[in-house]
Amino acid sequence: MNDNNQNHKSYAVEMYGIYKRFGNVLANNNVDLKIQAGHIHGLVGENGAGKSTIMSILYGFYSADSGEILINGKPVQINQVEDAISNGVDMVHQHFMLVDNMSALENIVLGSEESFSLNMVYKNARMRLQELMDITGMKVNLDEKIEDLSVGYCQRVEILKTLFRGAKILILDEPTAVLTPQESLQLFSVLKKLRDSSTTIIIITHKLKEVMELCDEVTVMKNGQVVLDTTIKDTSIKDLATAMVGRSVSLERIINPDTHLDDETEKIENKTVLVAKNIQVIDNLGVVKLNNINLNLKTGEIVGIAGVSGNGQSELLEVLSGLATPMEGEISISTDDQYRFTSESWFDPKKARTIGIAHVPEDRYTRAMVMDFIAWEDQVLGYEYLSRYCRNQLMIHKNMQTDTQMLMDEFDVRPPNPELQCSQFSGGNQQKQILAREINQAPKILLIGQPTRGVDIGAIEFIHEQIRKLRNEGCAVLLVSSELDEIIALSDRVVVMNQGEITGELSINECNETKLGLLMSGGKLEPEVSQQIQ
Question: Is the pTM of this model over 0.85?
Fold first, then answer.
């Protein structure tokens, strides 16, 4: 906790009466927000709560419909990004704004050149950046190309770019979303040094543990309004979660995943139902996406796939669900019958469903839902050929509508209206519908990608319960998640991927963030802790 300005609060940012409407949606509704100078301030809330909108207004992406902004006590007009930067406000986005084939130095200087002589520009910039790196501890090889840097170092380049442009107020959007645990700790150290050198930092995040560990104050938003504004010492994760969701949430497995409580149910015998051997996937550009993947799934078990996004997890789900065909490899499936497929004769998604494989895709908007469909139409997507829904080539709409209503009630979809268009539901309720559709068919194998992406903490609690219930009923579950807490909370066994390869496999009792983070970055564990679970 930073003790600066304890007796007299000096605000770097003050926003009063901010309104912002997009069509019929009131994204910010009379928002007042004050950020103390030289502090780290967390901004949390459900998906669609308005937190990104209020920060986009501060950064000049959007103009407020009405309201007032003060920077260091002085009223300012911020109508575009240049206005924000000129007032010392800058932003590091979740998806980095860097040019891959340019060096770190060239990326940092890009757009800030003050001379026609690039040699002089780069020389002066290098001297200034060396000073910044010495102050912050953010060491980066300025001559290395972005495409050759790790994700953690790319983020350092982004932060250095903002400081180089004179930022005194720094906005970070989900800063640890693509970092390993070790890289996250390094980032925290950097941010604390920046705070101690009088930089004001605002973090948009959904990771409440990180808020409690890193921030001085926190603001919770819900439905476009501020519902809680407090110091970290006066709140708790439970208080923040309750403010976000509007009700008490059971957090035992969400915020304390390391405890990994055993479910009080009879254990299912672990029978192998899927064995994938030597899976190889190469994309159209010749880049290896999956390299010699060997994997097995067992009944009554959740296998978590851990790794920084983009390391082959998506391709693995596509291959195992029949959406993509590997260049090499084979798969054996033992559900109701014995099946074997090779790269020369792979299965498709329809065949996958008929042999008991269900799939909840990572991207619900492009892979799992048709946004223009009515809810009951989407609820049978991929299963419309079943006799309950189709007879003599005629669709039985009544059964579709009846089943959709039943599933909406069971899975607490809000509003529980089968006649609404899919696009009219929130992200969390869309995810519940997709999960309901796949679970309703009692699959033998469930492949699930990013089950709680963009979902509020109340829906997370429910979705986790459904995944565990399915596991306890004997389903084999393969879980891909970029949230390490989620992997540890749900999994019985964890497989780690890096650059399209499996770098390790651990039972849940062997897992912790340090070990997983090392494997996620391509490192190796000591022999006594790296034994694979057969």
Answer: no
